[in-house]
Design brief:
Number of helices: 0
Structural class: mainly beta
Order of helices and strands: EEEEEEEEE
Strand content: 35-45%
Radius of gyration: 13 Å
Strand order of the largest sheet: 1-9-8
Largest sheet: 3 strands, antiparallel
Helix content: under 10%
Number of strands: 9
């Protein structure tokens, strides 16, 4: 998948095990990839509160119970399936979705 179409291949599905997260850098774009029990999601790595990246460290985006995405700055919690903030200073807001598709086992993002 070429960037000429706007879609960029970032990894293979098997590189993202179930209930795992991965941070992807594509130029100035920082993206969170999540495999949530076999369903893939992609969000901009940017908290709606102050714009901080969510991750605590490389590829670590989940809260301690592995149920929600969590902002490392003010501990806001986001639902994996929707990006909706359920707790914290940006409650009611949501993460920005990044279009994602899987083509022949390849995870591609549209930026």
């Amino acid at each position: 998948m070429s960037s000429g179409s706007g879609w960029v291949e970032v990894c293979r599905v098997e590189d993202l095990p179930e209930t795992s997260t991965r941070g992807i850098s594509l130029g100035t774009n920082e993206v969170i990839l999540v495999n949530w029990f076999g369903q893939l999601f992609a969000y901009r790595n940017h908290c709606p509160h102050l714009g901080w990246p969510l991750n605590f460290e490389t590829d670590r985006f989940f809260d301690s119970e592995q149920r929600f995405l969590q902002c490392s700055n003010h501990m806001a919690l986001f639902e994996v399936e929707t990006g909706h903030c359920i707790a914290g200073p940006c409650s009611g807001q949501q993460l920005e979705t990044v279009p994602l598709q899987v083509i022949e086992g390849r995870v591609c993002l549209h930026l």
